[in-house]
Amino acid sequence: MGVGQPTVLVVEDEPAQREVLGYNLEAEGFRVVRAENGEEALLLVAEEQPDIIVLDWMMPNVSGIEVCRQLKTRSDTRHVPIIMLSARSEEVDRVRGLETGADDYVIKPYSVIELMARVRAQLRRTRPAAAGMRLDYADIVLDAETHRVTRGGEEVKLGPTEFRLLSTFMEKPGRVWSREQLLDRVWGRDIYVDTRTVDVHVGRLRKALTRAGGDDPLRTVRGAGYALG
To answer: 176: number of CA atoms within 13 Å, CB side?
Structure first.
């Protein structure tokens, strides 16, 4: 998938279903985090910051609907797409699921191929570079599939880390990213990297983008981090 493996949180209380889902998502190149109930899901969301959540409706104690409701009312998790899985095909249930904030609703039994397509569709919305899309910002064009970047039609030579950094900035222009968030997104949370490393790579990215002239599109926000534009 290229630009930093997207993380999928699978919340499903049936072990067999959870494994099938996890296995298929991993085969598609996703990083999968598994939760077997609603309480665990709510804890993992804070720790793992998933890019998308596949959530079973019927679970003991805290239902999928309740998990969805809580996540969609929190400002730090409101933007994470949620796909609800439910054996309840009634129209009224579907409406209730979507009203609670679910982004999509898949009825069991579902085809794995269809579910994968829906996961990808949600990611294209929230993480276009991870889905192999082309991103544009001012005169900068990033093609995630061919790993090429041009500015004003001229090719910009970037190393893999600078490429992932630029993808992150271009997916959310104007958003201020802290060094810790960039470490998570670009280097991955399992790798120990000093936050100063972020500054070094941002410096390299700036140099590459302005090599042929043109303004520096990256902004340093004092005490907060970096933003594009």
So the answer is: 8
Is the omega angle on the peptide bond into residue 109 within 30 degrees of 0, that is, cis? Answer: yes
Domain residue spans of the chain: 7-126, 134-228
> Confidence band (pLDDT; 50, 70, 90) for 93?
confident
Lowest mean pLDDT among 24-33, 63-72, 103-112, 121-130: 121-130
Q: What distance in Å separates the CA atoms of residue 78 and residue 83, rounded to the nearest whole number?
A: 13
Per-residue model confidence (pLDDT) at position 219: 95
DSSP character at residue 185: I
| Beta carbons within 8 Å of 82's beta carbon, 6+ residues apart | 52, 53, 55, 68, 71, 72, 101, 102, 103, 104
CATH 3.40.50.2300, domain 7-126, yes or no:
yes
Residue-wise over 37-72: b if at least 16 C-beta within 10 A, else e? bbebbbebbeebbbbbbbbbbebeebbbbebbebbb
Could you tell me the fold of the domain covering 134-228?
A: Arc Repressor Mutant, subunit A (1.10.10)
Round to the nearest angstrom and report the end-to-end CA distance of the chain: 26
Tell me what pLDDT residue 184 has: 80
